[in-house]
Amino acid sequence: xxxxxxxxxxxxxxxxxxxxxxxxxxxxxxxxxxxxxxxxxxxxxxxxxxxxxxxxxxxxxxxxxxxxxxxxxxxxxxxxxxxxxxxxxxxxxxxxxxxxxxxxxxxxxxxxxxxxxxxxxxxxxxxxxxxxxxxxxxxxxxxxxxxxxxxxxxxxxxxxxxxxxxxxxxxxxxxxxxxxxxxxxxxxxxxxxxxxxxxxxxxxxxx
Length: 207
Hints:
Order of helices and strands: EEEEEEEEEEEE
Shape: globular
Strand order of the largest sheet: 1-12-3-8-9-10-5-6
Number of helices: 0
Strand content: over 45%
Largest sheet: 8 strands, antiparallel
Helix content: under 10%
Number of strands: 12
Radius of gyration: 19 Å
Oligomer: single chain
Distance between the termini: 20 Å
């Protein structure tokens, strides 16, 4: 166990913490890299160790044009991805090379209302060679057996023939009090051609 060292009474002077003390900083737990992958799943490491699980998506590229990047949750270690969810989805967007053509939209078709379907993180991702989507998803307290499972995401993507830059925001909850222990990511159509996903664990401060 590391020793806490201090030069005065200020918290900023602490140079090391015992491993059991949460620091609030993300800890990298796993990295998955796609290569013509039907899906990417994290079936281990999602447990009561951390309060928040953060997923970072880096240049996720679809094999199929104009398809949604999606996720779903599991309460049985990945045997089934079918947790009931209620969500909301909106985005600002701007056309490339065209001034004052952007807008802010509430995207009703991407919402779920007590549905076990996959939830979109990025809508209609373009598969041009230089296009992709990148973003972040937070999953809160997935191991709780008391509360529903809140999540929220923010994605940046390119879509359409123009093309168009869009910033997708999604939030919702998995309506289950069972512990969520696995998560799957995929495109609605076709493989994940390239890109990587990193899973981090974040512990809240206990003071």
